[in-house]
Amino acid sequence: MRVVLLALLLAGCSSEAEQQVRQYEMMKRNGATTAQLCGKGREVAAAYLAEENEMQYRMWDVEAGLACNQVALDNLRLTR
Question: What gap in Å lies between CA 37 and CA 28, rounded to an integer?
């Protein structure tokens, strides 16, 4: 009973951004496409922006940008 209560309390301490990060990492481990990671990365960055966490926002904006740029490059290769 105590373990369940502790787990519930700790789960409530997570921010929206931290939950988004865990989802991103889970998606990445389970073979998400670059386009999916681009979208989720943008969601993570937006969550940190809403929390006014500038350092994490910048990091995730770059992370998402890298994934999104890879999608754009892949699309260019497909059209040639």
Answer: 7
Angle 37-38-40 (CA atoms, 0-180°, nearest 5)?
60
Instruction: Give tens-digit pLDDT for 31-46.
Output: 999 999 999 999 999 9
3-state SS track over 5-57: HHHHHHHHCCCHHHHHHHHHHHHHHCCCCHHHHHHHHHHHHHHHHHCCCHHHH
* Residues in Cβ contact with 15 at an 8 Å cutoff, skipping those fewer than 6 apart: 47, 51
pLDDT band for 71, please (50, 70, 90 cuts). very high
- Residue 43 tokens, joined: 């969601």
User: Which residue, 41, 42, 40, 52, is CA-closest to 15?
Assistant: 52
Exposed (0-12), middle (13-18) or buried (19+): which is 75, by Cβ within 10 Å?
Answer: exposed
